[in-house]
Amino acid sequence: MKLLAQQRDLQAKIPDIEKCLDIVATLQAKKGSGEALIADFEVSEGIYSQAIIEDTESVCLWLGANVMLEYSCDEAKALLQKNLENAKASLEVFVADLQFLRDQVTITQVTGARVYNWDVHQSRLAAKET
């Protein structure tokens, strides 16, 4: 159950990281064009606001645990790319671990059934002898 929960968390985190990477790339593309970027963003669950973003050299990334840090666009892109790669690698490990656990559960169930069948067979042989 713990592995499944961690897998779900990673599956939810990966699209968020990709979205952040797209936003940083958009900000870098708009840099120097003189054109402001109008963005709608979520302030709180279900509450949105609109912002006008002019040329910027830095972005703030929410790191969790009530921590937000300011990075240059290049640093933010590198950090997000590294986080995305780590998340995808971790997801692959979780998928492999879950598959291993599924195989082990199947093997255990088959072994239990074989032991039960052997016991039934032994009981029938003992009943015939008496």
Automatic annotation (TrEMBL):
Coiled coil: none annotated. GO terms for biological process: microtubule-based process; protein folding; response to cold; tubulin complex assembly. InterPro entries: PFD3, Prefoldin, Prefoldin_subunit_alpha. GO terms for cellular component: cytoplasm; prefoldin complex. Signal peptide: none annotated. CDD domains: Prefoldin_3 (cd23156). SUPFAM superfamilies: Prefoldin. One of its GO terms (molecular function) is tubulin binding. Pfam families: Prefoldin. Keywords: Chaperone. Belongs to the prefoldin subunit alpha family. This is Probable prefoldin subunit 3 isoform X4. It comes from Elaeis guineensis var. tenera.
